Amino acid sequence: MCGIFGVISSKDRPELGAIVASALNQMQNRGDYSAGVATIRKLKFSRKEYRRLRAIAVSHTLEDFNPFEVVRGVGKVSDVFKDKEAEAQKLKGFMGIGQVRYPTAGYTFLQEAEQLCEAEKEKMKVESIQPLIAPFYKVSMVHNGDVHNFKEIIEQFASQGLRQATNNDLEAILKVFNQEFFGQPENTEVVERVGKSVKGVLERVKGTYSVLTMVNNVGLVAFRDPRGRRPLFFGVNKEGDKVIDYAFSSETVALEKMLFKGTKEKKYVTGKSAYDEVKPGELILITKDFEMHRRQIVEPQLFFCPFEASYFMRASSFINDKRVKTIRRELLDLMWKRFEAERPEKYQHLIENKDKVVIAPVPRTAESAAIELANKSRALGFSYENAIEKNPFSSRIFMQPTQKHRDLQTIDEHYIYEEDVKDKIVIVVDDSIVRGTTLKHDVKYFRDIGASQVHLFITFPEIRNPCMHAIDFHTNKELFAYGKSLEQMKQELGLRENESLVYTRPEELSKAIGLEKQNLCDECYKIM
């Protein structure tokens, strides 16, 4: 899972890199392993003059004719862009793209690459940080996704004499795009040329991906795979009625914070115009001459990932023109109504002991849902407490690369306030259970400091199956719910007979998000 952002302006902007980096900072929730930004500036020469002068240039002065700049590194956006003034000075231009990423998913060494010397491996690690670059024709690309046939594609190119350059699966998309694009005659009309290139990618590259590509002397290209599991929104900046900037983003909050406006007639609850999306299987090209072209390259077959709504996205973003915070609240509302109807004895027990009931969210994504339950339960006499404090310096445990890392981080992940939960019946609200690392620890923690009961409400269905679509749980055995009944799950979490474990159901996800069940990817929670 990653966050991507891209901008194209009608003219060079000295602050372009700062805009992209700031937008990525708004999506740090989508990954903190690495961050990077690339920009292209306009040159004051004709294409013919540019080629003539470049051929004459001596030594390092050749770089005067390089419109391309990139800054990237391991760590959070604030780590990579420490010297904001220096980087802003470097990253100027009229096109810019960037990415934040979380580790392991999509990072692949083939056997041949494993045999390289350490220096070459180290170089590959650096070059694997997005944006990826094809320097000869000045093409740069970022993606949010996972390529399933990476090995086959890289081996095909290796047989032609092009060895693996990175350990990032985006390399497969970049190579296929370049082969398709530069394999066409230069005098091919640009929209037709880009359209055929994207069609080639969609046909040849199997997997899940939303992609932004800068092509020097062409423009900014945005496209999504036909299933559209990963989001990609866009907005505009205007002077009067004239559009002066286009921007693309994995989340609407980054567009909003960078002051880009929506383009749809439909309004959000705020009264502002909604942000449009790059549709599944669609290409959007903004040319260097600032002309916008939209083409549906292949038929869309929407299969959106609902984990975006429950876990990944910020509560302030929108999905399907609906605030993520609202979706999470509606999920809990539907769950609570079902709990009351299907488990009347346990519901009645809570009502009879209302003075002892405390609602406590697991920070941060579950807070919206817990507040909905608190609002609903205020009339019943339940209290709401932020009884669990998340260590502000820790990353999201789910995003840690190995179980050992997760176990180590769990120890200092949460602090639970004893005075809020001692002798209380605690209703814990969490966004999901993937491996169960955190909740097992927290249930025991509640017991140790004197909570009398613990009930768990989980706003995502039981994750029973691996995900091969840019979320890092790739095997059955690592998943908490795999092969277990509800009673077995309760037992492993340390819950007692009189306590509850309540999961969201698929039909509740569908209703809250506002998409039909057949348009939501269910591969991780469907019963096989």
Short description:
The protein has 528 residues and is α+β, with helices and mostly antiparallel strands. It is elongated.
What does this structure look like?
The protein has 528 residues and is of the alpha+beta class. The strands form 5 sheets. A 7-stranded antiparallel β-sheet has the order 3-2-4-1-10-9-11. Strands 5-6-7-8-12-13 form a 6-stranded antiparallel β-sheet, with helices on one face. Helix 18 (486-493) links the parallel strand 21 (453-458) and strand 22. The chain is elongated, with a radius of gyration of 25 Å.
Secondary-structure map:
Elements: E1 2-13, H1 16-26, E2 34-40, H2 47-56, E3 68-74, H3 77-80, H4 84-90, E4 93-101, H5 111-114, H6 118-127, E5 132-134, E6 139-147, H7 150-158, H8 170-182, H9 190-204, E7 207-215, E8 219-224, E9 233-239, E10 242-249, H10 252-257, E11 276-277, E12 282-287, E13 292-296, H11 307-312, E14 318-319, E15 322-323, H12 324-342, H13 344-352, E16 357-361, H14 367-377, E17 383-384, E18 388-390, H15 403-413, E19 414-416, H16 418-421, E20 425-430, H17 437-448, E21 453-458, H18 486-493, E22 501-503, H19 506-513
Parallel strand pairs: 16-17, 16-20, 20-21, 21-22
Antiparallel strand pairs: 1-4, 1-10, 2-3, 2-4, 5-6, 6-7, 7-8, 8-12, 9-10, 9-11, 12-13, 14-15, 18-19
Give me some keywords for this one.
single chain; 528 residues; six-stranded antiparallel β-sheet; 34% helix
Cα-based radius of gyration, to the nearest Å:
25 Å
Beta-strand proportion: 15-25%
Average pLDDT over all residues = 92
Strands of the widest sheet, in order across it, are 3-2-4-1-10-9-11
Q: State the end-to-end CA separation.
A: 24 Å
Morphology: elongated
Sheet with the most strands, sense and barrel status: 7 strands, antiparallel
- Category by helix and strand content: alpha+beta
Low-confidence stretches: none
Total number of helices: 19
